[in-house]
Amino acid sequence: MQQNKTKVIIAGGGTAGWLTAYALAKRLGSLLDITLVESDQIGTVGVGEATIPTMRSFHQLMEIDEREFMRATQATFKLGIEFNNWGGVGESYVHSFGAIGQTTWLTEFHQYWLAANAQGFGGSLEDYCLELKAAKASKFALKAGKTPVNYAFHLDATAYAQFLRQKSEAIGVNRVEGKIVETKLNPSTGDIQSLQLDKNRELNADFFIDCTGFRSLLLGEALNVEYENWSHWLASDSAQAVQTKSTEPPIPYTKATAHSAGWQWKIPLQHRTGNGIVYSSQFCDDAAAQKTLTEHLSGDTLTQPRVIKFTTGMRDIAWKKNCVAIGLANGFLEPLESTSIHLITTALIRLMRLFPFAGNSAPLADRFNRETRFEWEAVRDFIILHYKQTRRDDSDFWNYYRTMAIPESLAHRLELFKEQGYVWPDAVNLFRVDSWIQVMMGQGLFPESRHGAGHILPPQALQAQLEKLKAFVANNLAQMPSHSEFIAQYCAATEQS
Ligand SMILES: Cc1cc2nc3c(=O)[nH]c(=O)nc-3n(C[C@H](O)[C@H](O)[C@H](O)COP(=O)(O)OP(=O)(O)OC[C@H]3O[C@@H](n4cnc5c(N)ncnc54)[C@H](O)[C@@H]3O)c2cc1C
């Protein structure tokens, strides 16, 4: 093992760059000499404001104090996503982060609920999930009674990068302001040797992390790693983002409302609301998308709508030679389930576990690449489900999605659910059974038959069990304060911008 610190350069200072800088400095700082280079001239993508609950465990690992982070980023709590108009126009469901009912080793809770419904009792599946009920009632607490609540955050993306930058610089990350104009390769090994910056500056390192966003300057451009295009499954290639003044106290969930040629997000923060529309240029031009977006805004606009173009997919490999790409430099899946920041954090954990301390290592890179692909494909399938499982036939956009061929992995999953309601967690365990169930049933897919477990108990006993579970949720819900009250006492931001 070498004695000198390994020199690491992080190219790019968006959410990916600063999360990388902070995590590496915090956990491997005594072994690494870390420099981050970013260009104010170029700026960041400036979106990415909804998260999933895994962010909490990442913050705990990195000793990021929740209240400090929430105050600094004007954050609110997020208990799930409300999907409007997805299965059919006028329909609505919530994909919440909570567990639904109680599972047994034999089968999942929804099987008991399906059996009850077939016998005329059991009510709505929603009544068995505390997080879902709390979202709809705009309530929040870290715990309800003794039950921990599963939550994530909405945050101001620019403020988050600044927060991480301050923390990173405080623990020794060196920041260089400058534009990368060339990536120099070692002619004999093909490794990256240095980054050439404007004003004739040059930065050398042992290992490079490409966080340059969609440009993918190091991995894509310099090392020529191809991009695998998934837009035949996820056709959207454009988004427009706009910020508005809030017109109501922040709700503890994201809204994803489908339109005839795309969908619109609404993300409530403490000081403003983030909005945007995601669409495909194949079915809708920028002007029409902007019209739809602005027609559905509530509150005065604080910014002009900004168009962002992208291609859904991922690089063939994320790590080549002495360079790994993290964040948008490695790929993009549209923000329907708010998974990009999560994918940054899992990539960082993977990188820290596989870091090539003894120099460049192909087997370590290979393992990293296999795990990355596994993870991205699982998330991709879950997102495709939202588009494929629709009865909408009111536009070319929905007709395309409803009738398109889907990956075999997803087809297999849908077939098993249709057959007998069988669901299992995805390969990397990100989306749990309850997530799949909420989206499948929320969009109108119900099993044709069911597991026998729900019929083992006599109906009266099953009904009594279900009533107990519902009462447990209702009692816990009754103890929770409103989301706004909770924020006010827990993490109110001092600066209003
Ligand atoms: C429309 C949209 C909505 C999204 N919503 C969500 C969401 O709700 N939740 C979520 O988790 N994610 C979301 N994302 C993804 C999220 O925004 C990104 O994953 C996250 O911001 C990380 O971006 P990044 O740091 O990889 O890239 P960027 O923010 O683009 O940063 C790139 C950095 O590289 C620097 N750079 C580039 N070229 C050079 C150069 N030549 N020299 C020097 N520096 C350079 C730039 O200055 C910048 O600092 C969304 C993305 C889009 C497009």
From TrEMBL:
One of its GO terms (molecular function) is monooxygenase activity. Keywords: FAD, Flavoprotein, Nucleotide-binding. 7-chloro-L-tryptophan binds at K78. InterPro entries: FAD/NAD-bd_sf, Flavin-dep_Halogenase_NPB, Flavin_halogenase, Trp_halogen. The active site is at K78. Pfam families: Trp_halogenase (PF04820). It comes from the Bacteria. FAD binds at G13, G14, T15, A16, L328, E337, I341. This is Tryptophan 7-halogenase. It comes from Halioxenophilus aromaticivorans.
